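Memo to structure team: turn this sequence into structure tokens by end of day. - J.P.
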Amino acid sequence: EALQLLAAPNCPSGKMDVILMPDQMMLQIHESIGHPLELDRILGDERNFAGTSFVTLDMFGKYQYGSPLLNVTFDPNRTEQFASYAFDDGAPAEKQFIIESGLLKRPLGGAISQARADIEGVANSRACSWNRPPIDRMANLNIEAGDTSLDAMIAGIDDGVMMKTNVSWSIDDSRNKFQFGCEYGQEIKNGKLGSVLKNPNYRGISATFWRLFASATPPLLVSFRVLMSSVAKLNFLNTKSTRTQTKCKIISTISPTSYPLLPTRARSHFVGWQPKHLTSFASTKTPCAKPVP
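Reply from structure team:
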């Protein structure tokens, strides 16, 4: 792969479909679903530290966060995943849908934040030590898997890029506008994988990005249509409940938030390449998101 990348051309720019492989999809979920839904951030507690959120309290139960195929669960009971525990603040840690059929249902907030906001959350207020106050932070988040194979996802794309291995990320302090870069890409033309591409990047806005979700395969590949060199239209396929994940042979990731390894597909996103020393795309008019330390 190293030799392939040395000889590979830079990723072309334009609007096309994108398949994000598991190692990149983990970051996408963490930054554009996990952090925006942390309730203390929504309440403004993190404003001077980790930032705010584009999500507001009046969105829960009403806001279409993603396409009808998008189902996201919070589940600390999955002991094969890293962020697992039995209870928090006296409440049992149990599986909850935070997004169901694309609809935003509940935030990631523990008992204290729930009481302040007068809204139902989940058991996820945690502290790093006995002498530190607990804060709302995501635990095991999973996009519920569908039954579409990676081969089928690729076959359904006329013009796109498959991306893997994250090398850079940038997102604003409300966790809305983002720009992510990968190391390895592969061209998809007329339903078939083609030549290797280097420095593939894409840009999006969390508030609308997941509405383009078109498909997720086991293990987690997510497909989007993105602006290469910058923006993705998600193409998430049919999803099913966590109970079917075992049948799909989903593998857990070793990460603080332990997402299942599913490639995903997005439709019509702006994609392209980016030199390593730059933090914005000269070819796009959208303001660049703030770099994250």
